[in-house]
């Protein structure tokens, strides 16, 4: 694990956005298209805002969420709506979004309609992950109903997920799909998440799903 500590959150968000932009540019130099896989939640907004103004050939970038809450875009909990508001505008409006939500009552019913788009976008070039204080990442939650399958080598690329710590049903990329990434970054802020990171380093993937990604990840932290 490569832990990078920043003087403050502004420096973190700017530094991480610049690093990701460089990695996307490098991927586009070698391939026709690049896949950028991103978290939702409350933390990454400023990174997305900075990236949205960066000049690169966004028309060749596929942007895909790590996971989505099964709510439509009118909900303040929609990761898709967050992404449209903060990243997919300005220069980055030209990027292609890979949907992780469709208007069906449950993720099980929606998943077959989304799977091909996800498969076509894999492997991931640049993976940005978030983490909850419970050490979940994407929607790989400790105690989730399909966690064993999602962490296994037999997992499909996309799974429905329900967990005691998650208020609504979810859809998530499996660990294997996320681990296809060439570059992996974990974005965390605050003392509580820093303490959770230290706990995760010595914990199993069942107890701390984020631990699975730490060996390859650059972890970006500011208080
Ligand atoms: O529910 C989610 O939570 C995590 C962490 O979110 P944060 O609000 O603590 O930043 C996020 O990475 C994930 O994509 C999201 O669905």
Automatic annotation (TrEMBL):
Residues 8-221 form the Glucosamine/galactosamine-6-phosphate isomerase domain. Its EC number is 3.1.1.31. It catalyses: 6-phospho-D-glucono-1,5-lactone + H2O = 6-phospho-D-gluconate + H(+). Keywords: Hydrolase. It comes from the Bacteria. Pathway: Carbohydrate degradation; pentose phosphate pathway; D-ribulose 5-phosphate from D-glucose 6-phosphate (oxidative stage): step 2/3. Pfam families: Glucosamine_iso. CDD domains: 6PGL. The keyword Hydrolase applies. Belongs to the glucosamine/galactosamine-6-phosphate isomerase family. 6-phosphogluconolactonase subfamily. Hydrolysis of 6-phosphogluconolactone to 6-phosphogluconate. This is 6-phosphogluconolactonase. It comes from Celeribacter arenosi.
């Amino acid at each position: 694990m490569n832990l990078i500590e920043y003087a403050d959150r502004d420096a973190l968000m700017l530094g991480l956005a610049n690093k990701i932009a460089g990695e996307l540019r490098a991927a586009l130099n070698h391939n026709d298209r690049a896949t950028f896989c991103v978290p939702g939640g409350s933390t990454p907004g400023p990174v997305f805002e900075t990236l949205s103004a960066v000049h690169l050939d966004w028309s060749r970038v596929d942007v895909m969420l790590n996971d989505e809450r099964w709510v439509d875009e009118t909900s303040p909990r929609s990761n898709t709506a967050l992404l449209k508001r903060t990243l997919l505008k300005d220069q980055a409006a030209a990027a292609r979004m890979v949907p992780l939500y469709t208007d069906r009552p449950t993720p099980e019913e929606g998943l077959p309609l989304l799977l091909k788009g996800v498969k076509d976008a894999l492997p991931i070039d640049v993976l940005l992950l978030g983490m909850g204080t419970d050490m979940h990442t994407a929607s790989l939650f400790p105690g989730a109903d399909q966690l064993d399958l999602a962490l296994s080598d037999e997992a499909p690329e996309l799974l429905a997920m329900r967990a005691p710590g998650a208020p609504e049903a979810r859809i998530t990329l499996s660990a294997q799909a996320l681990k296809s990434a060439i570059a992996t970054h974990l974005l965390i802020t605050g003392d509580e998440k820093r303490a959770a990171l230290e706990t995760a380093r010595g914990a199993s993937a069942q107890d701390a799903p984020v631990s699975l990604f730490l060996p390859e990840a650059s972890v970006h932290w500011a208080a």
